[in-house]
Design goal:
The chain is α/β, with parallel strands linked by helices. It contains 14 helices and 23 strands. The longest helix is centred in the middle third of the chain and has 16 residues.
Length: about 475
């Protein structure tokens, strides 16, 4: 046994991953969280990691050798107050990742507003299929690797890099701490309005990230997001572009359909590098694929094993994940919470399901989506859905009334655009509406970056009973 490490905020996806990694390295690991929920809580239980429900001074009674503090923890948290008074050593999650896992590896960081998790998981899977045996750290659960991390034998460590701040005692962005050797920038739009004042403020974080890449590194950036052109201007290393734009150094081109799969080709400087088939739909997934394939190729991956990886890639939990089919009604779970993510997710599903009726069930839960930042953008995000249900914002009392997203106004704006929108105040009301109105052939897409009050599980249970009645 190497020592005892306690994690505060352990059910955050990144925190749950590092807990598993530390457990795998032989540490005794415990954690605490205010509201343990799947998939993190389930994965932690499987690993035999004790999760204490609620933050209390008593959680530190066992005197851990180190406490890792998640960025959800505030300075006035009672457990944090005990930690500060106790003299127990502590550090942030990004610093722990660097200290325990990155020192002897070559970190490849995947950053951006959208597509980080899928691109990170796909890049790691491509490198695995090319024989690199990479390590991986993911803000989600890879279905292919069966967890949110992997400790491989190879030199490369693929990391999902988050621009959110690090901890209550360190307000620098998380991704700065990883000392990236190479960097993949998937996208850049305004987000995290509780942290960044505006897009220029957010760009400063990405400027800082880019400038920290070592001279011998590589930066790939999406030419489909113009703001990234500005961000990479300070790079000291080699830079290349990728995307679906004709001017991209690495370019993806949709070819057609093969059964229920997309067929597309990848070109490098106009020369075909390979042809690929995979089950993901939508232009955003082609962008994710080009991002991952381009960096893998720059690191030495070959076309044939890369094509095999694409064909076998199953993705990340809660990213267009099919949770079940009940009497012909499909339930899909997605993490989308930014207006662009909502739109491209629904657009991709519309391409796949064409004439079938799509229900979009959306919970404004992230710190940005609960606020008015995107009040005028959200009505345009649901154009590819037929039935739209918006829940009340999560934990509204935590946000000043004048700063909150106005869900009633959003629903009214949807109706003005000719969409069938409605607001629901609780999960049980949503379940009843769907049970009473959904029909075989319908597709239900549940979008939230949290547990959504257990809506998915309640829907599956209710529709199963309905099917058996």
């Amino acid at each position: 046994m190497k020592g005892y490490i306690h994690l505060m905020g352990i059910c955050g996806v990144g925190m749950a991953s590092i807990a598993g990694m530390l457990k795998e390295k032989g540490f005794h690991v415990t954690g605490s969280d205010s509201n343990p929920y799947p998939p993190a809580s389930v994965e932690l239980e499987k690993m035999g990691i004790t999760v204490m429900n609620g933050y209390r001074p008593d959680n530190l009674r066992g005197r851990p050798d180190l406490v890792i503090v998640g960025n959800v923890i505030t300075r006035n948290n009672p457990e944090a107050q005990e930690l500060l008074a106790s003299g127990i050593p502590y550090m942030s999650m990004p610093d722990a990742l660097r200290e325990f896992f990155l020192k002897d590896k070559y970190p490849v960081v995947v950053a951006g507003t959208h597509g980080k998790s899928t691109t990170t998981a796909l890049l790691a899977w491509i490198l695995e299929n090319n024989g690199f045996s990479p390590s991986m750290f993911l803000g989600g659960v890879s279905i292919d690797f069966g967890k949110g991390w992997r400790l491989g034998e190879g030199e490369i460590f693929v990391i999902e890099g988050d621009e959110y701040d690090t901890a209550f005692f360190d307000k620098t962005p998380k991704f700065i701490h990883y000392n990236a050797g190479s960097l993949l920038l998937t996208s850049l739009e305004f987000d995290h309005g509780d942290i960044y004042k505006n897009i220029d403020d957010l760009k400063k974080a990405f400027f800082l990230l880019v400038q920290g890449i070592r001279d011998s590194g590589i930066i790939g950036y999406s030419s489909d997001y113009p703001l990234l052109e500005e961000v990479i201007s300070g790079a000291k290393c080699r830079v290349y572009s990728f995307g679906i734009d004709d001017s991209s150094y690495w370019r993806g081109e949709k070819k057609g359909l093969v059964g229920n799969c997309l067929e597309f080709a990848i070109f490098r400087e106009g020369v075909k590098w390979g042809e690929f088939i995979w089950e993901k739909w939508g232009v955003h997934n082609i962008q994710n694929a080009v991002a991952a394939i381009s960096m893998a190729a720059e690191l030495g991956a070959k076309p044939e094993p890369t094509a095999r990886a694409l064909r076998s890639f199953r993705g990340v939990k809660r990213r267009q994940e099919l949770r079940g089919v009940f009497s012909g009604i499909e339930i899909i779970e997605d993490f989308a919470h930014h207006p662009t993510s909502v739109k491209v997710t629904l657009q991709g599903l519309r391409e796949k399901y064409r004439s079938r009726r799509i229900w979009a069930i959306f919970e404004p839960r992230s710190n940005t989506s609960r606020r008015r930042f995107f009040q005028d953008l959200f009505p345009f995000s649901f154009e590819f859905a037929d039935e739209i249900i918006i829940s009340e914002i999560y934990n509204p009392d935590a946000i000043k009334p004048e700063e909150r997203l106005d869900v009633d106004q959003l629903v009214e704006d949807l109706r003005r655009r000719g969409k069938r929108g409605r607001k629901c105040n609780n999960v049980n009301e949503i379940v009843k509406i769907i049970v009473d109105n959904a029909h075989p052939g319908d597709v239900i897409v549940v979008m939230s970056n949290g547990s959504f009050g257990g809506l998915i599980e309640k829907l599956m249970e209710a529709l199963s009973k309905d099917a058996g009645s």
